[in-house]
Protein backbone atom coordinates (compact mmCIF):
# COMPACT_ATOMS: atom_id res chain seq x y z
CA UNK A 1 0.00 0.00 0.00
CA UNK A 2 1.21 3.49 -0.88
CA UNK A 3 2.55 5.57 2.02
CA UNK A 4 -0.03 8.34 1.81
CA UNK A 5 0.97 11.78 3.08
CA UNK A 6 -2.53 13.26 3.20
CA UNK A 7 -5.95 12.41 4.61
CA UNK A 8 -8.40 11.93 1.76
CA UNK A 9 -12.08 11.75 0.88
CA UNK A 10 -14.03 11.78 -2.35
CA UNK A 11 -17.45 11.92 -3.92
CA UNK A 12 -17.50 9.32 -6.71
CA UNK A 13 -19.37 10.13 -9.91
CA UNK A 14 -21.50 7.00 -9.64
CA UNK A 15 -25.06 8.29 -9.31
CA UNK A 16 -26.77 10.22 -12.14
CA UNK A 17 -29.34 11.49 -9.63
CA UNK A 18 -26.68 13.23 -7.51
CA UNK A 19 -26.30 16.87 -8.50
CA UNK A 20 -22.94 18.56 -8.85
CA UNK A 21 -24.06 20.99 -6.15
CA UNK A 22 -24.68 18.12 -3.73
CA UNK A 23 -21.36 16.48 -4.52
CA UNK A 24 -19.41 19.72 -4.17
CA UNK A 25 -21.13 20.66 -0.91
CA UNK A 26 -20.27 17.30 0.63
CA UNK A 27 -16.60 17.51 -0.37
CA UNK A 28 -16.27 21.15 0.70
CA UNK A 29 -17.84 20.51 4.12
CA UNK A 30 -15.45 17.62 4.79
CA UNK A 31 -12.45 19.64 3.63
CA UNK A 32 -13.29 22.64 5.80
CA UNK A 33 -13.59 20.38 8.85
CA UNK A 34 -10.13 19.01 8.08
CA UNK A 35 -8.78 22.53 7.64
CA UNK A 36 -10.13 23.47 11.07
CA UNK A 37 -8.34 20.49 12.64
CA UNK A 38 -5.11 20.56 10.64
CA UNK A 39 -4.75 24.28 10.08
CA UNK A 40 -3.84 26.02 6.87
CA UNK A 41 -5.81 28.02 4.35
CA UNK A 42 -7.72 25.78 1.92
CA UNK A 43 -6.94 25.73 -1.79
CA UNK A 44 -9.33 25.01 -4.66
CA UNK A 45 -8.02 23.10 -7.69
CA UNK A 46 -10.17 22.95 -10.84
CA UNK A 47 -9.50 22.05 -14.49
CA UNK A 48 -10.08 25.65 -15.64
CA UNK A 49 -10.95 29.03 -14.15
CA UNK A 50 -14.43 28.68 -15.66
CA UNK A 51 -15.58 26.64 -12.66
CA UNK A 52 -14.79 29.62 -10.42
CA UNK A 53 -17.59 31.64 -12.06
CA UNK A 54 -20.02 29.01 -13.39
CA UNK A 55 -19.57 25.98 -11.14
CA UNK A 56 -21.81 24.97 -8.22
CA UNK A 57 -22.50 27.67 -5.64
CA UNK A 58 -20.08 26.22 -3.10
CA UNK A 59 -17.27 26.11 -5.67
CA UNK A 60 -17.85 29.73 -6.63
CA UNK A 61 -17.90 30.68 -2.94
CA UNK A 62 -14.70 28.70 -2.36
CA UNK A 63 -12.97 30.53 -5.22
CA UNK A 64 -14.02 33.90 -3.79
CA UNK A 65 -13.01 33.07 -0.22
CA UNK A 66 -9.78 31.11 -0.68
CA UNK A 67 -7.00 30.77 -3.21
CA UNK A 68 -7.81 28.85 -6.37
CA UNK A 69 -5.56 27.42 -9.07
CA UNK A 70 -5.49 25.15 -12.10
CA UNK A 71 -2.85 22.89 -13.59
CA UNK A 72 -2.85 25.08 -16.69
CA UNK A 73 -0.78 27.93 -15.39
CA UNK A 74 -2.77 29.94 -12.83
CA UNK A 75 -0.42 29.34 -9.93
CA UNK A 76 -1.02 29.62 -6.20
CA UNK A 77 1.63 30.20 -3.57
CA UNK A 78 3.11 26.79 -2.92
CA UNK A 79 2.67 25.57 0.62
CA UNK A 80 1.17 22.45 2.13
CA UNK A 81 -2.49 22.93 2.88
CA UNK A 82 -5.97 21.35 2.65
CA UNK A 83 -7.09 21.02 -0.98
CA UNK A 84 -10.49 20.70 -2.62
CA UNK A 85 -10.17 19.26 -6.14
CA UNK A 86 -13.34 19.72 -8.19
CA UNK A 87 -13.79 17.40 -11.22
CA UNK A 88 -10.01 17.11 -11.66
CA UNK A 89 -8.27 15.51 -14.60
CA UNK A 90 -5.12 13.53 -13.90
CA UNK A 91 -2.92 16.60 -14.18
CA UNK A 92 -5.08 18.40 -11.66
CA UNK A 93 -4.83 15.41 -9.31
CA UNK A 94 -1.05 15.50 -9.50
CA UNK A 95 -1.10 19.20 -8.63
CA UNK A 96 -3.68 18.80 -5.85
CA UNK A 97 -1.75 15.97 -4.20
CA UNK A 98 1.46 18.02 -4.20
CA UNK A 99 -0.26 20.85 -2.30
CA UNK A 100 -2.08 18.45 0.05
CA UNK A 101 1.05 16.75 1.38
CA UNK A 102 0.85 16.38 5.16
CA UNK A 103 -2.65 17.84 5.05
CA UNK A 104 -5.97 16.79 3.46
CA UNK A 105 -7.43 16.27 -0.01
CA UNK A 106 -11.13 16.15 -0.94
CA UNK A 107 -12.09 15.25 -4.50
CA UNK A 108 -15.29 15.47 -6.53
CA UNK A 109 -14.81 12.91 -9.28
CA UNK A 110 -15.87 13.25 -12.90
CA UNK A 111 -16.05 10.08 -14.97
CA UNK A 112 -13.92 11.79 -17.60
CA UNK A 113 -11.04 10.96 -15.21
CA UNK A 114 -12.07 7.91 -13.12
CA UNK A 115 -10.46 7.78 -9.67
CA UNK A 116 -11.62 4.50 -8.15
CA UNK A 117 -8.07 3.10 -8.27
CA UNK A 118 -6.73 6.22 -6.53
CA UNK A 119 -9.43 5.98 -3.85
CA UNK A 120 -8.63 2.31 -3.21
CA UNK A 121 -4.89 2.94 -2.98
CA UNK A 122 -5.04 5.97 -0.65
CA UNK A 123 -7.97 4.56 1.36
CA UNK A 124 -10.11 7.61 0.72
CA UNK A 125 -13.37 7.99 2.62
CA UNK A 126 -16.36 7.70 0.28
CA UNK A 127 -18.47 10.68 1.33
CA UNK A 128 -21.62 9.11 -0.11
CA UNK A 129 -21.38 6.27 2.44
CA UNK A 130 -19.08 7.57 5.17
CA UNK A 131 -16.90 4.46 4.85
CA UNK A 132 -13.39 3.96 3.55
CA UNK A 133 -13.45 2.95 -0.12
CA UNK A 134 -13.50 -0.83 -0.41
CA UNK A 135 -10.32 -2.26 -1.91
CA UNK A 136 -11.40 -5.11 -4.18
CA UNK A 137 -7.89 -5.91 -5.41
CA UNK A 138 -6.17 -9.11 -4.39
CA UNK A 139 -2.63 -9.07 -2.95
CA UNK A 140 -1.41 -10.56 -6.23
CA UNK A 141 -3.09 -7.82 -8.23
CA UNK A 142 -1.58 -5.12 -6.02
CA UNK A 143 1.82 -6.71 -6.56
CA UNK A 144 1.35 -6.60 -10.33
CA UNK A 145 0.26 -2.98 -10.13
CA UNK A 146 3.41 -2.17 -8.21
CA UNK A 147 5.49 -3.87 -10.90
CA UNK A 148 3.84 -1.65 -13.51
CA UNK A 149 4.52 1.37 -11.29
CA UNK A 150 8.19 0.41 -11.13
CA UNK A 151 8.42 -0.06 -14.88
CA UNK A 152 6.95 3.42 -15.29
CA UNK A 153 9.94 5.18 -13.76
CA UNK A 154 10.58 6.78 -17.16
CA UNK A 155 6.93 7.62 -17.75
CA UNK A 156 6.28 4.50 -19.86
CA UNK A 157 8.17 5.92 -22.81
CA UNK A 158 8.99 3.35 -25.49
CA UNK A 159 11.39 0.66 -24.42
CA UNK A 160 11.85 -2.06 -21.86
CA UNK A 161 9.61 -0.58 -19.15
CA UNK A 162 6.70 0.01 -21.51
CA UNK A 163 7.09 -3.47 -23.02
CA UNK A 164 7.15 -5.18 -19.63
CA UNK A 165 4.14 -3.16 -18.48
CA UNK A 166 2.23 -4.22 -21.59
CA UNK A 167 3.02 -7.86 -20.86
CA UNK A 168 1.77 -7.58 -17.27
CA UNK A 169 -1.33 -5.63 -18.28
CA UNK A 170 -2.30 -8.22 -20.86
CA UNK A 171 -2.70 -10.82 -18.13
CA UNK A 172 -4.01 -8.47 -15.45
CA UNK A 173 -6.84 -7.03 -17.52
CA UNK A 174 -8.12 -10.48 -18.43
CA UNK A 175 -9.25 -10.82 -14.83
CA UNK A 176 -12.90 -9.94 -14.21
CA UNK A 177 -12.39 -7.94 -11.01
CA UNK A 178 -9.87 -5.38 -12.25
CA UNK A 179 -10.08 -2.86 -15.06
CA UNK A 180 -8.26 0.05 -16.64
CA UNK A 181 -9.77 2.57 -14.22
CA UNK A 182 -8.27 0.73 -11.26
CA UNK A 183 -4.89 0.50 -12.97
CA UNK A 184 -4.77 4.16 -13.96
CA UNK A 185 -6.04 5.39 -10.61
CA UNK A 186 -3.38 3.36 -8.81
CA UNK A 187 -0.70 5.11 -10.84
CA UNK A 188 -2.22 8.52 -10.06
CA UNK A 189 -1.99 7.64 -6.35
CA UNK A 190 1.65 6.65 -6.88
CA UNK A 191 2.45 10.12 -8.21
CA UNK A 192 2.68 9.62 -11.97
CA UNK A 193 1.97 12.82 -13.88
CA UNK A 194 -0.59 13.44 -16.61
CA UNK A 195 1.75 12.73 -19.54
CA UNK A 196 2.94 9.47 -18.03
CA UNK A 197 -0.62 8.36 -17.34
CA UNK A 198 -1.58 9.23 -20.93
CA UNK A 199 1.20 6.96 -22.23
CA UNK A 200 0.07 4.17 -19.92
CA UNK A 201 -3.49 4.54 -21.18
CA UNK A 202 -2.25 4.03 -24.73
CA UNK A 203 -0.48 0.85 -23.63
CA UNK A 204 -3.70 -0.35 -22.01
CA UNK A 205 -5.61 0.27 -25.20
CA UNK A 206 -3.03 -1.67 -27.19
CA UNK A 207 -3.42 -4.84 -25.09
CA UNK A 208 -7.21 -4.90 -24.82
Q: How is this structure best described in words?
A:
Helix 7 (160-172) crosses helix 9. Strand 6 and strand 7 (131-132) form a beta hairpin. Helices cover 49% and strands 12% of the residues. The mean pLDDT is 95. The chain has 208 residues and is α/β, with parallel strands linked by helices. The protein has a 7-stranded mixed beta sheet with strand order 3-2-4-5-1-6-7, with helices on both faces.
Task: Tell the overall outline.
Answer: globular
Classify the helix fraction into a percent range: 40-55%
N-to-C series of helices and strands: EHEHHEEHEHEEHHHH
Class per helix and strand makeup: alpha/beta
Strand content: 5-15%
User: End-to-end distance, in Å?
Assistant: 26 Å
Q: What does the radius of gyration come to?
A: 17 Å
DSSP E strands, number: 7
The total of helices stands at: 9
Largest sheet: 7 strands, mixed
The side-by-side strand order for the widest beta sheet comes to 3-2-4-5-1-6-7
- Name the poorly predicted regions: none
| Average pLDDT metric | 95
Amino acid sequence: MTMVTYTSAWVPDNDPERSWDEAAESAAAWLLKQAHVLGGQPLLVTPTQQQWQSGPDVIRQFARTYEATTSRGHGAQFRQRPVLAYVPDYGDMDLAASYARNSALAVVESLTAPLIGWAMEVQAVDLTTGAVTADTRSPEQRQELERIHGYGNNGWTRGFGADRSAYILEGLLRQDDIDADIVVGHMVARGHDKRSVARLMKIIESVR
